[in-house]
């Protein structure tokens, strides 16, 4: 349990940054069980030591979704930014609508994706502040960043739908490697669910490891951040249970011209099988 302010304890770590330490749903069961962290937090609330209860985790949100389905938390905190929306699409597609329906306060963290969007900070903050959230946790390293972040808030102008679509299409950090989950590459003649495999790659390393080193500083940043949420185990589990894996690609090329973002789908499938299939393909 981590304290998110004097009156808001956050029950944190249920499949968060380090899910490989154990089963994620088992962690949630322990928290909700008699004698668990939630019971202790409720006792503290009865004694007037706290007022509200929140829950938090990083990355893939299945356990977080289950937690707010299971208990009426007052707040939920999750990763939300325009880069990771394509690695963890359930956050915006399922978690946020569910929290709004249940009138649970939404705390947005990681607006600049752990610093990955540092070159596009203003755009990242416009995207973050425009989400249906109660507060944005910015992450600040120095006074200059504080002043810039305050400026983004004071001068906030919502993104239009056209601007959002332009970000999804042209953002340098997404480039021609990150899958936008548009589904236009389907159907595959070999019955490969291409977008689903790319989503699993997102769970694994946030689609940051494209196998290309064209700038040493950018490469070093990706290497530092790609396993930041510790999603390797869940990615391996899901890839292992996939009926048609990436190695079934016949390189027919049928999918390639369909991708509006110029992704080399054949190469990306090889990357995924190299990462998750325990076989060397280059």
Describe the structure.
This protein has 282 residues and is of the alpha/beta class. The protein contains eleven helices and six strands. The chain has helices spanning 24-32, 37-46, 62-70, 90-101, 121-129, 143-154, 161-170, 194-205, 216-225, 232-240, 265-276, and strands spanning 2-3, 9-12, 54-56, 75-79, 105-109, 135-137. It has a six-stranded mixed beta sheet with strand order 1-2-3-4-5-6, covered by helices on one side. The protein is globular. The protein starts with a strand and ends in a 6-residue tail after the last helix. The model is unreliable at 1-6 and 13-22 (pLDDT under 50).
The gist of it:
The protein has 282 residues and is an alpha/beta fold. It has helices spanning 24-32, 37-46, 62-70, 90-101, 121-129, 143-154, 161-170, 194-205, 216-225, 232-240, 265-276; strands at residues 2-3, 9-12, 54-56, 75-79, 105-109, 135-137.
Instruction: Output the helix-strand order.
Output: EEHHEHEHEHEHHHHHH
Q: Biggest β-sheet: count, sense, barrel? A: 6 strands, mixed
What is the share of helical residues? 40-55%
Shape by Cα distribution: globular
Distance between the termini: 44 Å
Note poorly predicted spans: 1-6, 13-22
Number of strands: 6
Radius of gyration: 20 Å
Count the helices. How many?
11
Mean pLDDT: 91
Strand order of the largest sheet: 1-2-3-4-5-6
Broad structural category: alpha/beta
Quote the beta fraction.
5-15%
């Amino acid at each position: 349990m981590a304290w998110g302010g004097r009156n808001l304890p956050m029950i944190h770590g249920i499949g968060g940054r380090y899910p490989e330490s154990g089963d994620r749903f088992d962690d949630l069961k322990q928290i909700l069980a008699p004698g668990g962290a939630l019971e202790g937090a409720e006792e503290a609330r009865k004694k007037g030591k706290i007022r509200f209860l929140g829950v938090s985790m990083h990355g893939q949100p299945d356990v977080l979704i289950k937690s707010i389905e299971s208990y009426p938390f007052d707040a939920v905190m999750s990763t939300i930014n325009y880069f990771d929306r394509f690695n963890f699409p359930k956050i915006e597609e399922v978690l946020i609508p569910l929290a709004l329906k249940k009138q649970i306060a939404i705390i947005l963290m990681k607006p600049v994706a752990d610093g990955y969007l540092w070159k596009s900070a203003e755009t990242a903050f416009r995207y973050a502040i425009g989400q249906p959230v109660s507060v944005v946790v910015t992450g600040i390293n120095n006074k200059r960043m504080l002043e810039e972040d305050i400026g983004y808030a004071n001068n906030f102008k919502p993104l239009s739908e056209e601007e959002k679509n332009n970000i999804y299409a042209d953002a340098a950090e997404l480039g021609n490697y990150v899958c936008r989950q548009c589904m236009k590459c389907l159907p595959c003649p070999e019955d490969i669910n291409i977008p689903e495999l790319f989503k699993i790659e997102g769970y694994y390393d946030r689609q940051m490891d494209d196998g290309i080193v064209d700038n040493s500083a950018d490469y070093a940043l990706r290497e530092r951040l790609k396993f930041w949420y510790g999603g390797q185990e869940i990615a391996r589990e899901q890839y292992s249970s996939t009926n048609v894996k990436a190695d079934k690609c016949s390189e027919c090329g049928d999918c390639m011209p369909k991708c509006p973002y110029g992704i080399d789908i054949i190469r990306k499938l090889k990357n995924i099988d190299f990462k998750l299939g325990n076989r060397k393909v280059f």
